[in-house]
From TrEMBL:
Species assigned in the record: Nocardiopsis changdeensis
Pfam hit, one: PBP_like_2
Keyword Disulfide bond: no
Domain of life: Bacteria
Signal peptide residue numbers: 1-20
Family annotation (InterPro entries): ABC_phos-bd_PstS, PBP_domain, Phosphate-bind_PstS
Domain PBP span(s) in chain numbering: 37-329
Family: Belongs to the PstS family.
Keywords: Phosphate transport, Signal, Transport
Official protein name in the record: Phosphate-binding protein
SUPFAM superfamilies: Periplasmic binding protein-like II (SSF53850)
Amino acid sequence: MRNGRSKLAVLAAIPLLATACGGGGDTGGDTGGDAAAEQLSASLTGAGASFPDPLFQDLIYTYNQDVQPGVQINYQSVGSGAGVEQFLEQTVDFGSSEEPLDDEDLAAAQEARSCEAVQFPVVFGAVVIAFSNEALDGLVLDAETIAGIYSREITTFDDPAIAELNPDMELPSDEIIPVHRSDSSGTTYVFSHYLSTEVESWADEYGEGKELDWADGLVGGQQNDGVTQGITQNPGGIGYVNQSYAQEAGLAVAHIVNEDGTPIEPTLEATMAASEEVEVPDNFQFAIDNVGGDGYPIAGSNWIFTYTCGYEQANADAIIDFWTWALTDQSARDLAGELGYAPLGEALTDRVVAELEKTNSAN
């Protein structure tokens, strides 16, 4: 359920995942930061990615109802590009994106606020290739065929390149209608980064980023909701969306061939497997590349941005408490899993909470 409390306990408790990023204690039973023992009062505004919006809305609802009734959080799903822009313009308390702030963004934040920005990942998620035709559920695609579809070199579902990957599936001759994000989008960044690392011709012609110069003949949609609508409203529709949106809309999804040549269904377990391959540097600037094993290959993370100064202390306490709860409380982690997002592993969670606590530390 969007903008309300989701049904909990659909999945068993999701264990904290061990990562190759350092050690740490068990955070699975925490209920928030040190401020959680007291009642907080604050009003926060965040803006950015639509990729995690289903999760963020349910986390915010649950936190307000069950943890801190005095904290009001308004998260605006405006797309990653707008989220970064509003964060740098200081019109929100925190920003959100599927692409981390680069060195230029960090320098701009420093200049605008006269203190450093803080950024940290909060969840992993899959970008799925979804269809309007339910008979195509489980269709196998690889990076080359996806690139061919979005460059309009492959225009029907029975194209020989798709047929070769699906010898046992009866493919329709329907025209493919590719749908893309028309706003500045972190989901587009994850999708185009994957294609750029896997397909040289895509990297040369289209590259990667939150916005692309798309081929002619594609349909655009605002945010993940708009792409989902574009898929369902067009016979032959195909598009890239966060897994949660495909789940909610009941869309058929492709199995994507990973680095080991294995077609992988986009499941929570496959996203977890992809996230376990990530080596996260100290500055938290990373991408998920070359996923093999049981991992789903089109995967990304969502980052939250705050500042080390400039908040009223009540707001800073609420930011730290909410995100600490979202990262460490087991019911919050279960909720992420229910919606198809993979929580951070144990060691990475410890590192992220330590980074989060730098919020307003320079005041």
